[in-house]
């Protein structure tokens, strides 16, 4: 770890929009409405305080974690460096970082939701430490923040905020991973009625090696669903397994935790009996968007590293940065980082704004926060999937740009490559999240009727016919707006047809469901990029090449989106449709996704040149 540095230019654009006119969009409404750029948040709107928090967290992670690893010439390892990792966590608490989501009355700093996402982006500079502090501030403490009684909050939250108490979240079991509600850990009330007696085994528990309190999910008697408990290590009957030997995030503690007749005072039941699975799911929603923010931070780090190296490394008598193949990679990495940023903070602010709206409607604070997040469960799943795949792409290409040096432990890039891989697995695997996004949307369309897909579906035939007519004008944003609208229409058309044909059997046709999830995700992310660039233009935030490069990013994103959707649509149509219907759907798909006439080679080159000129990602 000697050749690289993360001393990158500031990643937060320093612009402010004077009069935000946002109103929170309803969850999933992006699919059936034309969104307005005024109604979304963009990262140019971070205020001074938010930028300061970002810089402070990033500086802390670079100094305490990344530079420390460079000095040692090796990464942190949970079994060897346990004490140092604990010390870093405690030091971060001195700056308030362990209390980012904890109320001030309990010793926290209670950042609003979107700022807590920005925090998650900044801790990406801590590599595996991001997982450690993530477990402390998110899955290990939010169940108490959202579902705890006043007594529970007073007892545990101040200790978590100060890191005197290290927190862990125990849901997964050896036989219950994705199917978490099938866990076998049992809880039985003792005869005196004072304690639940817990027995069972939890696996892959982050921070488990040094945690003082565990949020544990267990089944009381033969209940249908799990219940949640706050368990102190000192309750007894708890054995901690050895540190797992992992591919990456080696500096983060991951262990098995065994409960053998562990007595848990009955007042440590968290939330309602049978309500634990709901807690687990809601907490995972918050984890998913924060993971997306962290992964987007990882993309930006990978770009900075790659640009720095590519500009220095010479082959064939010139810097490798000058080669088209390298510009292609830097250009594409930049497009993905920009897209992840646009969609993540659009959603994060919607959650913040929705929470405020619920509070104004006299909902309790917990209810407001929880409902605010639940509203955007579909968007959170989309972000988790797309941003985790973005960071894997970016760090893979970064390693490739480093060539042999990328493969060597010396440059530290292989560590980032290994660390990033977990993001596709935890907080619900990407397969599960793809299916969840469709299942949740379907529930809102059919069961709760929150999203009126039926009315939107009725307009599709006339809309497609209009697309067949020659367009009067492609000026302004018309073409880009049409692409986004057409992707949405494609999703509704195909998922509607497959639903009519396969009915409840559709859920078993997972490949098709995943095709639809990919189109849905493209609709959301492509629209987020479009709205961001439109808002930038409307507010005249950038001029000349500074604005032009952002428009070029949009064009590359849309071009790629069309390709992704075209393939997903073809795969799905061949899988469920036959005869005339198949031909008709193929024809309609072609109509909805015509060639987008842009030269992506030139666009990516221009984007790369721009990033080179800035010395890294500054968008
Ligand atoms: C480093 C690390 C840290 C972790 N930290 C924590 C923690 O702090 N607390 C905690 O509770 N858990 C934690 N986990 C567990 C993590 O959430 C699970 O690993 C994850 O949910 C997947 O479960 P699994 O590993 O059992 O895989 P499985 O569920 O066995 O899945 C294996 C494969 O099958 C696929 N699959 C499963 N079911 C389906 C289905 N119905 N349809 C299609 N495909 C399916 C999955 O997508 C995956 O590709 C951690 C895991 C790791 C590796």
Number of strands: 10
> What is the percentage of strand-forming residues?
5-15%
Outline = globular
Low-confidence stretches: 1-9
Which CATH class of the domain at 464-614 applies here?
Answer: Mainly Alpha
Structural class: alpha+beta
Helix and strand pattern: HHHHHHEEEEEEEEHEEHHHHHHHHHHHHH
The set of bound ligands, ions and cofactors reads:
flavin-adenine dinucleotide
Average pLDDT works out at 94
Rg is 24 Å
Total helix count? Answer: 20
Secondary-structure map:
Blueprint: H1 48-72, H2 82-94, H3 113-122, H4 128-139, H5 142-147, H6 150-162, E1 167-170, E2 186-189, E3 195-206, E4 213-220, E5 227-232, E6 238-240, E7 254-265, E8 269-270, H7 276-312, E9 314-315, E10 318-319, H8 324-360, H9 365-374, H10 377-402, H11 404-407, H12 413-420, H13 430-447, H14 453-458, H15 460-468, H16 478-502, H17 510-538, H18 544-576, H19 579-592, H20 600-614
Parallel strand pairs: 1-4, 2-4
Antiparallel strand pairs: 2-3, 3-7, 4-5, 5-8, 6-7, 9-10
Residues 135, 169-172, 177-178, 204-206, 246, 249, 254, 422, 425-426, 428-429, 431-432, 510 line the site of flavin-adenine dinucleotide.
Question: How would you characterize the overall build of this protein?
Answer:
By secondary structure, this protein is α+β, with helices and mostly antiparallel strands. The longest helix has 37 residues, at 276-312. Strands 1, 2, 3, 4, 5, 6, 7 and 8 form an 8-stranded mixed beta sheet that branches. Strands 9-10 form a two-stranded antiparallel ribbon. Helices cover 57% and strands 9% of the residues. Residues 1-9 have low confidence and may be disordered. Strand 2 (186-189) and strand 3 form a beta hairpin. It contains 20 helices and 10 strands. Helix 10 packs antiparallel against helix 12 (413-420), helix 16 (478-502) runs parallel beside helix 18 (544-576) and helix 17 runs antiparallel to helix 18. Among the domains are: 167-274, Butyryl-CoA Dehydrogenase, subunit A, domain 2; 464-614, Up-down Bundle (Butyryl-CoA Dehydrogenase, subunit A, domain 3), CATH 1.20.140. Bound molecules: flavin-adenine dinucleotide.
